[in-house]
Prior knowledge:
Layout: H1 11-27, E1 51-60, E2 63-72, E3 75-81, H2 94-103, E4 113-114, E5 117-118, H3 121-132, E6 140-144, H4 150-162, E7 167-170, H5 177-187, E8 192-195, E9 202-206, H6 217-228, E10 235-240, H7 245-249, E11 252-255, H8 258-273, H9 282-296, E12 301-305, H10 311-324, E13 328-331, H11 341-353, E14 359-363, H12 367-370, H13 377-382, E15 386-391, E16 403-406, E17 415-418, E18 424-427, H14 440-448, H15 456-463, H16 468-478, E19 507-511, H17 525-529, E20 543-545, H18 547-553, E21 559-565, E22 567-575, E23 583-587, E24 616-623, E25 645-646, E26 675-680, H19 689-697, H20 705-709, E27 718-723, E28 728-733, E29 752-754, E30 760-762, H21 772-776, E31 783-784, E32 819-820, H22 826-837, H23 848-852, E33 858-862, H24 866-873, E34 877-878, E35 890-893, E36 895-896
Parallel strand pairs: 6-7, 6-14, 9-10, 9-12, 10-11, 14-15, 15-16, 19-23, 20-22, 25-36, 26-35
Antiparallel strand pairs: 1-2, 2-3, 4-5, 8-13, 17-18, 21-22, 21-24, 26-33, 27-28, 29-30, 31-32, 34-35
Amino acid sequence: MSPVGGDAIGRRALLKLLAAGAAASVAACSKPDETIHPLVDQPDGTLPGQVRRYASALPLAGYARGVTGLVVNERPVKLEGLAAHPASLGATDVFTESAILDLYDPQRLQAVNGPSGPSNWPAAARALYGRVAHRRGSGLALLTGRVTSPTMLARIAALKAALPGTRHVRWEPFDDDAALAGTQATFGRRLTARPRLAEADAILLLDADPLGPGPEQVALARAWSQRRRTAPMPRMIAFEGSPSISGAMADLRVPAGPQAIALACHYLHAALTDAPRPPVPSDLARALIAATAMLRAGGKPLVLAGDHQPAEVHAFAAWLNAQVGAPVDYLAPVDTDATPHRAALAGLARDMHAGRIDTLVIIDANPCYAAPPGLRFADAMAKVPLTVAAVRIPDETSARATWQVPLSHPLEGWHDWRAADGTASIAQPLIRPMWDTRCPSDVVDLILDPAAAPKSYARVRETWASLGADGWRKVVAAGVVPDTAAAPVVPGAARLVLPVIPTAAASLSIVPSPTLYDGRLSANAWAQECPEPLTKEVWGASARMHPDDMAALGVIDGDMVRIERGGVITLPVRAVPGQARGVTTLLAGYGRDGTGAVADGIGANAFVLDAHAPLKITRAEGRIAVVTTQHQFALAGELEKLFPVLAPGAAMPVPDKHPSLLPNPPAKDNAPPQWAMAIDTDVCIGCNACVVACQAENNVPAIGPHEMSVGRDMHWLRVDRYQTGEGEGFQPVPCMQCEAAPCEPVCPVEASVHDAQGLNVQVYNRCVGTRTCEANCPYKVRRFNFLDYAGASLWGDAEDASVTAQRNPDVTVRARGVMEKCTYCVQRIATATHEADAGGTPAAPVTACQAACPTSAITFGTLADASIQTARADPRHYALLEELGTRPRTTYLAKRKNV
């Protein structure tokens, strides 16, 4: 049947219309209707093309992390940390850096879809209101993620008041149920433990990863690095089943499965109370003797238990902290819902199966992907007559919903959230919604009033009416509401709880992906292409096993294994040095279906495995080699000089001076600044925030799994992970900006040249792609555009014109056949120079990688700056491959190990 008003539209014509619409939406990027306030006083007459900075915030698992939005011509192009926010402290992580791409993602749901196809908001609202209003909410359930937003909580409360039968359930795939149950057992009430890592003289990790992915990664890493730089040097011992970022940074790391962790708790209790010590294996005993000595050495030791450890281990850690006077605060939970996440979702699923729920509204949650398989949530949804899924990107849950309604990106609307310490943030939008989308609070309002217009600004303003007009302006400009952090409470006497020691058996651990988290970044091409810190895998993840366990199965790296635990998945396996015997580790976030071309078909979904079912791992047919950007991790012999590890107080050997027949060049009067960088590997945690920050700042394209598999990685900055006989750690490797650059004399067209500021620059319009510079670079930091990566699309049939709106207008988009590399963010240097030439007093330029680093491991400045001179005078200072005589401007401080 022909559509009303004319002939059917062909596919090609339809795609052209969609492309034109997408291009028009990008061209029409504009600021929000309401007044938004810049982070600092910037002139009203800011010229086109100049960067304006705005404070805002982004949530992760419901908790706020402050961001600074860099906006050019009404387009946000980059996100950085917000110095005033306690969860970001001016730095970022991979999730924050990647979020700007989510804003422009062409895979986003752009309009309402109903049972019959494309629809609109009024139709969806009428369908919803007509079912629930006359029954005062009976049979209505609202499912969300963790809610810390005062405005959202107020709207949910208003919904419950108007429709008393409404049921609200909040659920996160990775929760804090065990941690809260642990403090309940120890102190008699649910409390959130907040370690003060900046004060800890010694840290004992019981399968904990405070430096790993999560809402507080930046804040905890910053505090840890501050203490690491302070004498006397602290010590960290980690007992863990699978290598983690924190384990890699520990001074002593011990592979330990569930039984060993429980034994460690019993041993430490006995050692500190002078009770008989239980028998433990000899290698574990040696580590526990060291841990006991560390806890008894005085000072302020701290014990942390991992989120996926049972409640009894958390309870023991709380008791142990009380015994040793650990630097830890306890807060009433910022998430005020006292129902455990998994119990709440299980109760909802039971009622859905029983037919007691006939209307289900899901806002920004994906239970059909990540819910425990025993709940059969997808089957339960099929029994609910009316289901509404509000999502930004289509997912497994929205595919099963009656109605799919599009959510705005957090940067497209007004919001408020609390950080993990309770600090409130008011998040202002940086751009008007690009499509017909609404904020979560607007979706809740539609349940009450089908004619409700989007009014996130009015709702947030109403919540914070007590601030007044002037206070509102100041708070929005600052991004943080002052004096809103939760006050610590006195927990009271600690009761001893010891975990039950399980029998020795194979175990399975499912942990958040350092790049995709729980899957909410699966559709983000930058996140998929960001190397996993420990294995350097991209576009997928292997099952991690001990080499002996793999030998017992008869498999090697890349072979397929079948894992059965309630559900079944098949995926490649990888031997990981440091993995505990009997422990298999899977990363969450993969195995997506219906999310788009970027995520679909990549890896396996670990969430289909049931935590309470018996575990069986067998060999499967076939091989799939997951792409990795680094193949050699262990360094021995002569190679150990690539990553030196020193004892506290030790110094690097003085390098030999290279003889030369050339005289030293005379100093030039009025020479321009000479730029340099120093990287402290002692505090680099390998989180890759710098890698994605560089990608966002410098228009570095994502190239997809095939191109990555043949070694064509385009990242200007890589972070190598090394293991030596002395220790392990991470080493960021940007361009060395060599003073005697081997790449320069071999270029036949002088595309690689040295400028007056000491930078090794690449002249793109001269480059003819001979790649001789790449071949002559000993550091392998140059990248070649084998194809038109900037013009190619990873988004399948989705029109990707919106992605171009994210690109930094100050950086050239490179074409096929051009070599590119790190430039020390020369565009930022040029901006500062121009401001100085105009008579201003510009701040010192900060590179994108430096701004992102949560541990402040990267120092950038001129050779005359005190910060660079201090770094170069440090006894730990060294240059990579110094014996080659390239005289790199990028140098390092060696890692230390407190044995």
